[in-house]
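Problem: given the chain below (451 residues), write out its structure.
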Amino acid sequence: MTNVNTLRDQLDGRVLLPGDDDFDPARTGFQLLDPHRPDAVVAAAGAGDVATAVRFAAEYGQPLAVQATGHGRNAALPGGILLATGAMDTVEVDPNARTATVPAGATWRQVIEATAPYGLAPLSGSFPNLGAVSYTLGGGIGLLSRRYGFAADHVESLDLVTPDGRERRVDADHDPDLYWGLRGGGGNLGVVTRMRIRLLPVTSVHGGSLTFDADRDPQVPAGWWRWTRDLPDEMTSAISMLRYPDLPMFPPDLRGRRVIKVQLCWCGPAEQGRRLVEPLRRLGDCIADSVRELPYTESGSIFAEPEQAHPYRSTVVLLPDLDEAGLSAVHAAAGAAELMCIVNIRHLGGALARPPRQPNAVGHRDAGYLVSVLSPVAEEDRAAVTGTHRAVLGAWHSASLGQQLSFRFGPLAPDEIRTGYDPDTYRRLTALRATVDPDGLLRPNHPVPAG
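Solution.
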């Protein structure tokens, strides 16, 4: 890359080039499929480095992408500059205001650990090693969402660098259009260097998972769905259907076995939570039960998602409701698929369906359930995975309201990105993109066009 020494001289962080020892780890991230292929990685030490990298990219006509953990990366950056924010991870907590200032590279685990000593918690996701800022910009559906809404609903302000190189702070009173679009519109409008979020008075939850044998108790998904029909908002839950690989890293009694897991997080009075869970235990012969009172610092154990980087793809539909026939069809199709298919269904509604204090760009608040199919994908599986996922979700494609883009892992066509928003929101986002990034400098995960 030309003028790279000029860029180095302006940074507190580092510039990494192909062949450098840290280049490949910096560009790869958690998602191992289709890593970024930049000409250079800027490992930013702070907001000043972010602004420098953005100005450099604009001056020399280089496309720019941002990566914190790389968990949700969908499309690789071919050339240009990758801005790695992982070193920007020091969380600041104001316990009196019940807020936290979260920098671009911090994970939810770091935010949880910083806030727990004050008896507070963020609206974090099911996977604590996920980047907190990118999760929030995409909306953010987490463990407490039916009680408190989307993570984006609780952002008080954002600091960012827009593609013209300007450092800005936006909130409800300053650049309100940007404030609206950043919360739910993803990385289309600038590079967020930090955000200030409201925290919640949550120290512990009643949560965990109930595991059933899928072949012996296929009625569990329908039973869970009926159970969700009349729940207090304090209960957020999901159900997963999967076959464990026959590999030594998994518990011996689960290897090669098809299971159904009901995942639960209750943030109300403990005794009421215990009573609510009891009918689920009677849905079948529960082979594992981890539901208990647990500190919020251990909330990642509810979904117990794998922490080792791996390649994967997923497909998503948002539905107004479920039905028993569709549940049976999805369960059967996932079990018969040649590829490993992990079906996850999350119960939405509650506070997710209500408008936030300050309007934002989060789409499809009317959805009742989110259904995703995820597969670990080897190189030889690439051609088959899309068709497999479509077949598994076949019963519900026609009823879909659209997609929750943060749960979609894989390249998306423009028409697919459009389905992440209602029409008015999409039009407003494209108009904003045309204003702040008319030349398409930014290469976000889910790019909306400058229209």
